[in-house]
Amino acid sequence: xxxxxxxxxSLNSAKSISELLLxxxxxxxxxxxxxxxxxxxxxxxxxDYNEKILKNMDDGNSQIITSYEVGVVYKxxxxxxxxxxxxxxEIHPYSTPILLKINVEELNSEFxxxxxxxxxx
Length: 121
Known about the structure:
Layout: E1 2-8, H1 11-23, E2 29-42, E3 52-56, E4 62-76, H2 81-91, E5 100-103, H3 109-116
């Protein structure tokens, strides 16, 4: 089993893509949480979705950007990783989405059995 972390610009986009992934049986579960993010951007970047410039950096090329986002953690099988990466590049609303793969080393036997009942390992 692996966990995949990604972010979305809205709860609606996170839910609609997650529903599609569930229908395709590419994920077993999706957990959502809304949050604000701070990150570096270039002054030449076009702002997207909910982004706002918080501060221009002294180097003249960088900015601190703030944005509302929805974080999602997916539970899935490692065999689905490549297909999820390909699908995300086609359907994700961000031009450069993050897909962070987290390998699960251990899992309690009850949940492992529960996952296997749905074809996930």
